[in-house]
Known about the structure:
mainly alpha, 9 helices, 88% helix
Amino acid sequence: xxxxxxxxxxxxxxxxxxxxxxxxxxxxxxxxxxxxxxxxxxxxxxxxxxxxxxxxxxxxxxxxxxxxxxxxxxxxxxxxxxxxxxxxxxxxxxxxxxxxxxxxxxxxxxxxxxxxxxxxxxxxxxxxxxxxxxxxxxxxxxxxxxxxxxxxxxxxxxxxxxxxxxxxxxxxxxxxxxxxxxxxxxxxxxxxxxxxxxxxxxxxxxxxxxxx
Length: 212
């Protein structure tokens, strides 16, 4: 019974905010495409410099000189949590609406640039490497960021309507409570993603690099 209630709440949420989700997903994909395009606009020297540092890093990974899993977990978790926390604050601040969208676009751009650069420099090996290093944790991180962005945008729009259009709507405190709860759940998912990035990704990366 409780499971069905949760499913209805989730279904209603996606139905109510479908247009925002569509906009946010398209914006993120535009960021990915833009990031991939930037790779092609780099000069030969810039690509060579970047690839030199990347090769040094791959050498360290191959020799087993990578950061401890505990450090990787903390780094990934705190980085992504700060990103989500900033979105949460921007959603409340009303004027932060455009910045939320810029942050999401930049996240897409980073993913697009990372994958695009690896493929551009290493071809099929680069695609395989990006598949095992970028994809596993981002299967959780990207949906979390998209949902968090949508919730922040929706909350910000509701606040704008209350402030400038003088629409009474639902009381602010229950709305804020739901908003906070959604981000607590998002942080739990990011914790799982950090675990994958710290434990699984280095093993997969090392096995792929050693197979080159």
